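Q: Hi! First time doing this. I have a protein sequence and I read that you can turn it into a structure. Is that right? Here it is:
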Amino acid sequence: MRTSPGGWRTCGGIFDFEEKEKRLAEVSRLLEDPAVWNDTQRAQELGRERKSLAGVVETLSSVDQGLRDSLELFGMARADNDDATLEGIESDVARLRETVEGLEFRRMFS
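A: Yes, that's right. Below is the predicted 3D structure, encoded as structure tokens:
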């Protein structure tokens, strides 16, 4: 079990954020090497992989930040008995859930 940059405990999971983040850095380094462009097919494959990985990494980072923001706002709203803000947080978390479900769906069919 590992701790993510956001402080959440992880064990890989279906998205395995840390591995995707490492692979994204590796693919980006490979694409910076001018020699990779001698093999057009390999360069194109790496470009597609980088685009796919970047999409997942950016989305998961956004979801992580959204959850952390919602948690902080929840604490403040709860302390103030601010029902309107709590309802807004519920809506925000529902959107984050839809985003994660979309990632799950794409992962199953990729």
